[in-house]
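Protocol step 4 of 6: record predicted structures for both targets in the notebook before any analysis. Target 1:
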Amino acid sequence: MKKKNLSSKYLHPLGLALAASLALGSTATLSGCGGGDDDEIPFTLEAAGNYKAGDNGEVYVYNWGEYIDERVIDVFEKDTGIKVYYNYFEENEDMYPIVATGAAKYDVVCPSDYMIQKMIGEDLLLPLDFDNIPNIVNIDPEYLKSAENFDPGNLYSVPYCWGTVGILYNKTMVDEPIDSWGVLFDEKYSQEILMINSVRDAFMITLTYLGYSQNTTNEAELDEALALLQKQYPLVQGYFVDQVRDKMIGGEAAIGVIYSGEAIYTQRENEDLVYVVPKEGSNVWIDGWVVPKTAQNKENAEAWINFCCRADVALANFNYITYSTPNKAARALITDDDIRNSEIAFPDSEILNRCETFRYLGEEAEAMYLNKWNQRGNK
């Protein structure tokens, strides 16, 4: 299956220009990059309404690329009469200045946990009116509790997708089962390692391996983590995000760092691939819907969030993007026992208890992380 961009019929001209300019300068994609081919993924969702798009206004949606089954947009428009203008970003850091400066006035956006925390702290978001989001009852309380780490009281966000970061390896190309981040620093796998091209995720790996918090701001700990990245640098075939999926499917490397939703997809394509959350721990992330202060269609934004919380809609999106859903009602509708009980899609508490969620660390710490990341090739 080949990744594709959203149909241009949903894209607003301003968003097209912004997406193009951002794509030119982008170097990495964080969480939210799954997706498949519409023709190969069953879709049984049907609209109950018969509105024309625009009968009841519009909503401007800003989301990750390949993070929705676009067929649900048609259903939303027919059910609500709200016209959807949909644009996508590749990184939280691409999305943030667009929303923060009001360069484009989006009504509903889907950032990651630490970015939601940052946007709340900078007073960029509106509190949600949950009277307009009754389907919030479908979200598992476990994930609402986790979301309080970055959105205390669940006032500003509703979880959309979540997942872990782990190691994907080809069992025909390694000598033994893998259970530790340590394999990423093993010289015998030189040029067989695909490292993740993300500052926080890369430091998460080395910090966690060393026994430190992935949210540390202690410079001595970061220097130890940097030393590991520098030791690893000559062993790495390349730094990627999206490409890890296809390279691992094609047998172009033995080991890769990958997001859990991507791992599910790769295993559909290559049965020799195994995903593991290392024993030292990892990152568990949550992406959620929020409404920026610059939104001009807040009630329509809340209608969109409520729609995405419907069990059948959440199921359709899960089937398409393969990233874990926090929607307990949708999970109950999954008919494939292997998927419903998958430790990749829905890891048990033993795995989650050794994971940590990113927090926003402040501008000074962000700059320190970036400065050290840029030194990984120096030794």
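Target 2:
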Amino acid sequence: MLLSTTAQRKIARLRKRIRIVQGGTSSSKTFSILPLLINYATTHPNSEISIVSESVPHLKRGVIRDFKKIMEWSNNWFSENYNRQAMTYTFGNGSWIEFFSADNPSKLRGSRRQILFINECNNVDFESYQQLAIRTSKFIYLDFNPTAEFWVNTELEGDPDAEKIILTWKDNEAAPKAAVDEILKAKRKAETGNKFYLNWFRVYGLGKIGRLSGAVYENWELGAFQTIGKTVLGQDFGFSNDPSTLLKTNIDKKNKIIYVQECFYLPKLTASQLGDLNQKHAGKDLIIADSADPRLIDSLKQYCNIVPAIKGQGSIVYGIAMIQDYKLVIDPDSKNLINELRNYVWLEKKSQTPISKFDHLLDALRYSVSYQLANPNSGEYHIW
């Protein structure tokens, strides 16, 4: 196999089980990994390789199109070998490469494989990755644009079985001139101090971790949790595979600072497990909880001091606005909360609609803060 770019040669040198490829635009991440997988399939009979992305449309627009293009260029594409319905290509030696989406639970928990490639893995959640990884016997490729920190950074970096490389357009000698010109144009704008282009060039030019544009909460920093007055906790309940969460808040109203500390972020807890954890972390302090399950709250009252948050029309926007009026100081060990803060963005800024993910701890924060600030005279949570 001809390794024609620096990017391909760098990726080919990766040897550990988990092979992380972080990079900017036009760095040839996907286009460099695919020839390695094709070569493996053709030189190792009966190989089983899975290529996964967030959705079927995403697969068809991206990695499947690139796969077919590479196979055609190398005169290895035979249309009769590709099962469109199953999205599987079978080679003459019995090897196969299948494509499927991470939103297909039966696939995540289904068949096993030797090699896994998750394309743009920052669009796939950590639980899905774990389900795929435990069913992979040899090695795993993960690629992504580093728009913000996520589970690869928090869970895999530092793992002795993982190694990471960072690629840029400079590693791709085949990058189109038009794409390079756009990157260099963005670089010049970044050098003027323009905030948008500073972040854009950091992510897509240098391949380094950036910060998503349109973040709901921008006025936050890391620091020790302080007890200024009364500590009140917030709780969001997990349904299905979502986690149940608990965090502590302490509000310094004079200096307009909210101190926040994550307590737990755990999926699939029973009511008794949740009660024990609440009792451990909250003691006699008040917990303001998601009101979606009144019976669960009633059952938890034997363990802790817990009341439901009062929701109403506009309560999300109202709660967010109150939090935005303060500076958030986040305990450095609150890794899931930090991840949510970095990824919780406006779906539609004009209508003040945030995305409905990366919000499990942030919903808990909103419940707690809204309870304390919405009506300070009575301590009750009202939506006006």
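Step 5 preliminary note on target 2. Confidence is low (pLDDT under 50) at residues 377-384. The CA atoms of residues 55 and 104 lie 8 Å apart.
Proceed to step 6 after PI sign-off.
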